TrEMBL record, chain C:
Residues 4-235 form the ABC transporter domain. GO terms for cellular component: ATP-binding cassette (ABC) transporter complex. This is ABC-type quaternary amine transporter. It comes from the Bacteria.
Amino acid sequence: MKSKIRFSSVIGFIVLLLLILPLMIVIITSFGSETAISFPIKGFTLNWYHNVFQQPDFVEGMKMSFIVAILAATIALLIGIPAVYALTHFQIHHKSWFQNIFLNPALIPEIVIGFALYQTLVISFGLPLFLSLLVGHCLLCLPYVIRLLTAGMMDFDNRIEEAAWMVGYNKIVTFFKVVIPNIKQSILAAFILSFITSFNNIPITLFMNGPSLNMLPTSILNYLENNYDPTVSAVSVILMLITAALMMIAEKYLGLNKLT
Amino acid sequence: MKRSTTLLLLPGLLIIIILLIYPALRMFIPTFTSGNSLFENYRLFFSSSNNLKVIYRTLMIAVATTLVTLGLGLPTAYWISRLNGNWRKLVSIIVLFPILTNAVVRNFAWIMILGKNGVINNFLMKIHLIDTPLTLLYTNLAIIIGAVYLFLPIMITSLVSSFSQLNSEIEEAAEVLGARPVVVFFKVILPQVSLGIFTGSILVFVGALTAYTTPQLLGGNKNMVLATLLQQQSITLGNWTSASVIAIVLTVIAVVTMFVLNKVSKMLDRRNNLEIKN
Amino acid sequence: MAQIKIENLTLSYQKNKQILKDLSLEINNGELLSILGPSGCGKTTMLRLISGLLPIQGGSIKVAGNDISKVPVYKRNFGMVFQSYALFPHMTIFQNVAFGLKRKKLSKEVISEKTLSILKTTGLIDLKDRMPSELSGGQQQRVSLARALAINPDVLLLDEPLSNLDAKLRIEMREEISRLQKKMKMTTIFVTHDQEECFAISDRVAVMNKGKIEQLDTPERIYQHPKTRFVAEFIGYDNFISKDWATEHGWSYNDTNSGKYLTIRPENIKVGTGNNTLKGKITARNFLGDCYQYIVETELGRMKVDTDNKDYQIGSELTLYFDKQSLIELENK
């Protein structure tokens, strides 16, 4: 018993260190004063953070990534909530078949989704890049929404809803007054997870960005192709802060285990 | 189906059918129809030794990543599942944080660590273990390291949830019956978390198989995998049919692996599904 | 099979929170001793200390004269049946039962032979190739017992083994346990919170409360002569009369110690007049199947009276008669 715990705790501790240290190095190098990234750092400066905001690609990209992530998560919820309600409340023939369709996007590699959408929507249909990108990100978010909301809806006791009908609320009012408030934790979890999935996405975004449409992750990727300076460290730290903020929101309102 | 049900399901179904399945078919069908014969494009793809190398490398990286994450993940997850209260919370945050952090950031960290003037080379030269920097970056090893870093938290998370469901009395029963801790771990605990092992392995294997950012940043141009090859053929070279073939091959490998591992794990699950009955 | 001697066992999680307080107990060779108590009294903790699943902080445990306090659990050669049965879900019934034998460096034939033999004894032979998930609760319980007995343990430990079974199976299984225990002359410690099942099969019973043994006796002695108020309440004595009050009112009773209370079972209170009586008002009547129970509010508090007479009316007065021979004197606790 004890030696088992001791062995696994040693490995576990090392693994945790390995998980944190690389990110620590990123944080430290973002303050280094030399123009090439070096570790350990020689001097201290905040210039690289300043430089992040001098890069139009980063500033524009951050803005666009935010907009797309919020829109994609919202649309995925608007599509997902009714579908999950139907799938969990009604007798439907071939229910699992429908569920599989909704989880379908998770089955196809993201880079393939990006490529297929680019070929059809952008090249063949001539759809604007932004719209095509949004479609891609909605598809990306949908499986998360479906999975989290199905779990939330299953936990919800249907008899509460029936009780509301009994005292005279119609089904639509009941849905908004009784069902939604009771699954709001799952909705928030789905939103946060969708947001971060979209915000961090590269494989789909890769195909549908361009001079007119800058997204943050691909902008960093492009920047890295030509430069190797602590600006990337600095923008990485900003991304980590966004992650940390989302985790704090999740922890406060949901408990972190909701996100996994 | 009732009308209201149809109405609720319709938006989602339409979006998936029109905006995912239809584009996928449009990509899929020309790979058969555009060649001289039905499988011409695939024959061409598989006859290139370079392509076969890429497939082999992709699979090798995915397998290695899965095995390493399993090896590191199992003891770590076991340890985490035994933690309580605030420790558990802190450790969960450390595991979850990388999952939610952009892959570019996480791979960039390893560029700094593995690069020619990176942390490892600097350190080794400083202690005079080596005179010239080792080539660590832009190798298969670098891709595997990056992928392990990327997917280890996911493996740990799915294993922890499996370990946490264990009934500790079963372990104790084995100990009382004379099994040493090592025996208990391999003969009693591991078989019970096989479902978590499969779930984690599916996620990691498919993730590593289809990952783009890691091989792009850490593998360089020489060490192509299917995902980077797909990007190169389509965006860089505009070779649509060839890119489509790669996309199909990648999808088929991913889906078949998922399907097979899922079937096996379901079989195991049925066997292991023990409830206390009255 | 061996005699167990537990001496001054103590355990505390924090400085001030003692789970077990200086507990000593001797279990004879081949005896079935029950530890009876409410949840949280420390009975399961004690069993886990004996089994070695918890490390010993203070005191010692001797089996057949040898101190095993420092022996790790997997070397103790004890059998244990858990509340959740704790069957290995990934092994067949045969593999479950053979698991302990495989650790003993026996030949395959011997393992197989011993396993089959215990499977026969416990009536499980037809189920040997099934998985635990395919068995009913009673069958799983049997497997758990067979697995514990297969290694021919020095001591058999049972941790609330019947609490997950329904009423009928519970009786069946406790008789099975008793039968096997007697047949194999197995020294057995049986932890339970159910007095009925514990009285039915035990040679002796230790009633535990707050980390201490309140009374250690045969089931009959405990039932007829509970020593402390806690024991009396736990095994169904509901009526308590303060000795001071009884003396004041000229009651006659056996006065042999400095205890404060007398107690009496509901069925032993009669209705009548004369000495040793107490007046009260009926507040409720409950039909219990074989008799009626009247709740009578008296100046000493609520008394429960069991009688065949169903004609007493709620609200009416009743004079209760307490026979001297039925009044039990509790110790000062």
